[in-house]
Amino acid sequence: MSDRRRTITGIAFGAVAAMAYGVSSVLIRRGTTMMTPPLVGAAIAMLAGMLTLLLFKAREMKPILTQNRKASGFMILSGIAAGLGVLSSFFALSQAPVVIVSPIQSTSPLFALAWSALFLKGLEKITPRLILGSILVVLGIVLITLNQTG
Hints:
By secondary structure, this protein is mainly alpha-helical. It folds into two domains: 96 residues; 45 residues. Helix 1 packs across helix 3, helix 2 packs antiparallel against helix 3 and helix 4 packs antiparallel against helix 6. The longest helix is centred in the first third of the chain and has 31 residues.
């Protein structure tokens, strides 16, 4: 697959992820306002996500996990971080309106940028333009959030 096609595919999956996370926040807010405790909601959501993933790639998982233990360790840490993110999201959405929580969650590009600069020096190129774009995205989020709370 060419680099251009890989980039387009990555952007398309990123857009699908954004839409899925956007609807997810609304569904979480709806579920937690119906008296489902955030911890129970997060557990149900993570279980549903795990089962969905297993349906797609269960056969391919064992050889991959045993071939590269270091990569598997990173994936485990990623799962822990994602689980913490999901749990935090459920608690946040059970306490505050989705129109405030969702923009705050969208500050993740700054965190991704910082972690990439630390751990992915050989894989990711951090440019001034990328930094500026991330800052502008977060600035827009701050303005939206201030408008909702003010």
